[in-house]
Amino acid sequence: MVVRILAGSNEVDSLSTESRTPVVQLSPFSSDGHDGLLIKIQPPREPANRNLHHVPCDLVLSIDVSGSMDSPAPVPSNPGEKQEDSGLSVLDLVKHAARTIMETLGPEDRLGIVTFTSRTKVLQPLTPMTAENKVETIMKIECMRPYDMTNLWHGIRDGLSLFKEGEDGQGSAGRVPALLVLTDGMPNHMCPPQGYIPKLRAMEPLPATIHTFGFGYSLRSGLLKSIAEIGGGNYSFIPDAGMIGTVFVHAVANLQSTFANNAKLRLTYPSYLKLEETTGEAVGKQEPVEVEGDVPEPLTSLTILLSNIQYGQSRDIHLKYGNSLESITAAAETNSKSLPGITAVLEYQHFTPTIYQTVAHQSVLALSLPLFPALDPAEIAYHVSRAALIAFLSTLSPLNAEEEHEPLKHLPRSLPDRLETLAASLPALNPKFSTSHAGCRSLLTDLIGSSSTLTSDDETLGSEKRTHPKTWTGQIALALLHTDYYHRWGVHYLPSLAGAHARQACNSFKDAGPLRYGADSPLFVRCRDRLDAVFDALPAPNPSRVPVPVVPVVSSMRVYNNVGNGCFAGGMMVALAGGRGEVRVGRLRRGMEVATPRGARRVVAVLRMPVRRVEMCLVGSADGKTGLLVTPWHPVSLSSGGVWEFPKDVALRLVRYTGSVYSVLLERDEDADAHAILVGGMWGVTMGHGLTQAGERGDVRVHQALVRLPRKTGGVALGGALTRDPETGLVNGFSRAEGPGKKVTRRLARRAKAAAVAPRPVDKLRPVVRCPTIKYNRRTRLGRGFTLAELKAAGIPKLYAPTIGISVDARRQNLSEEALAANVERLKEYKARLIVFPRKSNKPKKTDTPKDQQTAETTQSIRGSFGLVQPIAAGLSEIKKSDLPKNVEGGAYKQLRKARSDARYVGVREKRVRDKAEAENAKK
Question: Which InterPro entries did the record assign (predicted)?
Fold first, then answer.
């Protein structure tokens, strides 16, 4: 269905921005050497219902939960100050932002959540945000944990699929659909071979706009911007924890104040005008096409995609002529067949399949005297300058063959001159405009930094003298004129700024230019202020990045030479390549790139070995607050290229560790320095140097043994212990850990034990206790033993309890009357069903079950089931003295020691014999 609304030049006065119909205004202009056409699309200032809380939305959060999301999110600090580590990870703050979005939604809104790592998981389909559903959503948000790699494509694909699976079968009718993609790095798993943009274009029309958010400085920002452009959304750069709140607040406020979606502007005009867009390269930008059919003169059609339009915020498009104004006027006057003109058709939707159209027309003959009132020269200067700034920034991230923006790796030396030329060409920087127009002043602030950098000899003529660009303090100038700034944050910030100006959408409180967008929209301001208040009012997230606890060992403990149980404790943090942060060594997976003294190297395999109370060394700073927990004989170095030392020699203290230890195998490299990783703030060697034979400096371990170990996903091998060469005593492989087959063996052993001890239970009776932490206190489990108070209340002596199958723990104390009563009842029930037969039927003890309680039915049942005879016969039998073995020379114990020694040193002795024989042969 298409609803057509005429908005020609004769009907301008009848259209009001307070109605539901947007105004399309075509304004030709010629000012200060700039000729062109300015198209202004003015939506209603606010909804007809001025009490509207917000426009209903369908939001899907596609959240990156790869291992790097566990990296710290430090609080921003001033230059020279030490950054604080609050213990919060990037994922902690993302979860906090997700809760903020959820809290501002009502029952008319729906929220879906998808997480992606090496694979995706739909935590929640699109669900109405009622009070009950919000409670469940919070639990799902809090359960997100970081894993391994980044499968961005599946995160986008599965997020879009949720819009096609609406509960009511009507999709997102009546609600603003939007997919918010949150990631902190570069995709490294299952990337589409043909590229992301061609893959997304094959899925058009997309069911929702796509908005991308990049955290930190290790981003593929060009890809995120391209995805946002083809998805009709915005790309936002979040450098640190201080920007998360403001970016998400503005992103959601823009969605909640949307007037129309799927908007596009179709222009039809005489071909001699040669209209051109002025904002540079962008994904999805369409080329002009010739109009086919029976037309009185050659006509050209140009389609401009606008996506979402917000209440109260105009969309202004600057087009320039390909010919001079004089030649255009002459061509129009010579055409007597028809009245040449420019026709603009705005198509848009109100979140339903119905397409609305607003039509406007402008005569070409009236270019010098437009029917619409002329725009303010300062307004023209602002929009011409804004388009020129976007075009300049787009040259810094040109599109490659896969239509992905590829930021320049090296800035040209002529960039300061280009910046100065740009500033001189922007009419908005003329003092007569920059001092009177807020928009022009905002562009001046972002580019140069302050109006004090401009001085005017004659403001009426605009002949300003500018200082050298090196002295400019604007964010754009800082990002481009300082190489270290550009490579750290400028390469990500500039595409985000260009996108905000192109969409005319406010994306943060930080930049003066985008901050003015939406300022005239009461609905946007209300939504933004409400979101900002909710973000600040929510309780701070609980830090998930806590240091690994270590237990000190008494100094008198015997030295334990544990030479082979892996390398690093599972909680140690490993530095990723390219400054992408850190990840726990236990979360490393095959294909991830880590930092080495020789640059980035790829992980080939990870060996995990479970251990229990093994001796490890804490190596690190003298204060003991930071350091590395490593096995005693695993070489470490405090600096790249420094001296390698054994942790046993430089340890601050020894600790007992229970958990898993990990060893890492990197890709083959002949350079030995390429086989070390930065873990716990110092360098630690990885498994082998790619060699399989021992040499003078080679690693004698044969790491091909990893192939024979059971594997999990991501290249993680499960090992049990190290094996050694019987001749040399050196490590030569790994034994297998207990696999699935061992479970069957243990189950059969339990069955055999149950049959052997019947009718007694297999295990002792244990109490029901609750986990000690606040998070898991609602869960119950079996404790070590009953307290003395519980035994006393049940009338069972503490020394007698272990003899009848009851475990006792004298250390545990009862902190809950409810738990005490429950365990006392458990003891009484056990005691009531317990039958204790006397050892001697003619001499029963006081604690034995009386004969009158040994019912015939119970006794007969036990005898029939297990074939027991009462009383139970003795388990020992006597043998004759003559059947004993005869005396052994030297005694039995001496023979045992000799046999054990022979078995232990057989390999060494054989080698000694061979070496002696070879030496004698050499003498001959």
Answer: Ribosomal_eL13, Ribosomal_eL13_CS, Vint_dom, Vwaint_dom, VWF_A, vWFA_dom_sf
**How high is the pLDDT of residue 147?**
81
Please give the full DSSP string across 835-848, using - where no structure is assigned: ----SSTTS--TTS
Q: Which residues contact 182 (CB under 8 A, 6 or more apart)?
A: 61, 62, 63, 64, 94, 213, 215
The residue assigned the tokens 């490659």 is 400
Query: What is the 3 state secondary structure string of 848-868?
Result: CCCHHHCCHHHHHHHHHHHCC
Q: How far apart are CA 205 and CA 787, in angstroms?
A: 67
CB 767 within 8 A of CB 826: yes
The full set of domains in the chain, from first to last, is 2-48+260-373 (2.60.40), 57-75+86-256+522-537 (3.40.50.410), 385-497 (no CATH), 551-737 (2.170.16.10), 761-834 (no CATH), 878-924 (no CATH)
* C-alpha distances in Å from residue 397, one per residue of 222, 388, 588, 778: 7, 15, 32, 53
pLDDT in tens, 560-579: 223 344 688 888 889 898 77
Whether the bond into 871 is cis, omega within 30 of 0: yes
pLDDT of 548 over the 50 cut: no
Residue by residue, what is the 3-state secondary structure of 33-49? CEEEEEEEEECCCCCCC
Tell me which DSSP letter residue 399 carries. B
Q: What confidence score (pLDDT) does residue 733 get?
A: 66
- Cα-based distances in Å from 709 to 588, 604, 704: 18, 14, 10
User: What are the backbone dihedrals phi and psi of residue 125, each rounded to the nearest 5 degrees, phi first?
Assistant: -70, 180
- CA–CA separation, 270 vs 458, rounded Å? 41
pLDDT per residue over 419-449, tens digit each?
888 888 888 888 888 888 888 888 888 888 8
Contact 478, 445 (CB under 8 A): no
pLDDT of residue 534: 85
759 preceded by a cis bond (ω within 30 of 0): yes
Q: What pLDDT is attached to residue 858?
A: 59
Record the pTM.
0.61
H/E stretch holding 533: helix 522-537
Start-to-end C-alpha separation, the chain:
106
